[in-house]
Amino acid sequence: MKVSLGIAPINWTNDDMPELGAENTFEQCISEMALAGFEGCEVGNKFPRDTSVLKKALALRNLRICNQWHSYELTTKSLAENVAAFRQTLSFLKTMGAPVIGGGETGNSCQGRVDVPVFSGKGMLATNAEWKSFTSGMNELGKIAADSGLKLAFHHHMGTCIQSAEETERFLNDTHPDHVFLNYDCGHFYFAGEDPVACLGRFAGRTAHVHLKDIRPGVLESVRRESMSFLDAVRKGVFTVPGDLEGCIDFKGLFSVLRQSGYSGWLVVEAEQDPALANPLTYAQMAKKFLDGLI
């Protein structure tokens, strides 16, 4: 498989809840990523925005930037505002040599709201006109990314208007196949009640970036039963890394699909947990050993 293994800094410091891992520095984060044996990483909230400073810090540890979350707000802001914000993130990622720009629609999402249950408060596109406006905007942003030499890899995500397999399929059908791609995430599909292996089989042809995380099924059941928000679900430990025996996702099945599809690109461990309860280095090493075995 022509893949590179990366990891997300959200395992050390949570972007949506900065108090989780507030004690972990940028230098500790990237040093432990390198110590665990990863080749690259995504961008977190403690990463310096000065590209020369960031490049030097990463080069010392033989790490590369592979992606960054970008919050699209096409459901709540004008296309012009979205284009301006997108170009800023795109310029940063291009300078850092990243192949994709990721992220999902946060404008009408409940993913960052602690007071809204994730299963009943998800973002919606209620009318065909809203859907058309959204997908047209994504097409324009995807074209901008393509013209810059990057791929827009859209992240389906719990709490958003693109959450289920059906919504993902409609989104891909209604966006340009040369400009808009998928950031596939097995954990979010399982969380949404989907079969991650079947979803990868359906969407592998449009997948430009892969997030690998596992689910603790007992915690997921509590999230549903107790009507938790997405953020509370993360605090409770709904996610964990591949290789954790508490997880339940069929990673052998996923890797079989990846091989059959000829996927090449980044595989990124992105399993946000409370670092005080799940030591980031320990879990990074666990994931790396497990994924090396599958590859």
Automatic annotation (TrEMBL):
UniProt protein name: Myo-inosose-2 dehydratase
Superkingdom to which the source organism belongs: Bacteria
Pfam family, one: AP_endonuc_2
Residue ranges of every copy of the Xylose isomerase-like TIM barrel domain listed in the record: 33-283
Annotated InterPro entries: IolE/MocC, IolE/XylAMocC-like, Xyl_isomerase-like_sf, Xyl_isomerase-like_TIM-brl
Cross-referenced PANTHER family: HYDROXYPYRUVATE ISOMERASE, INOSOSE DEHYDRATASE
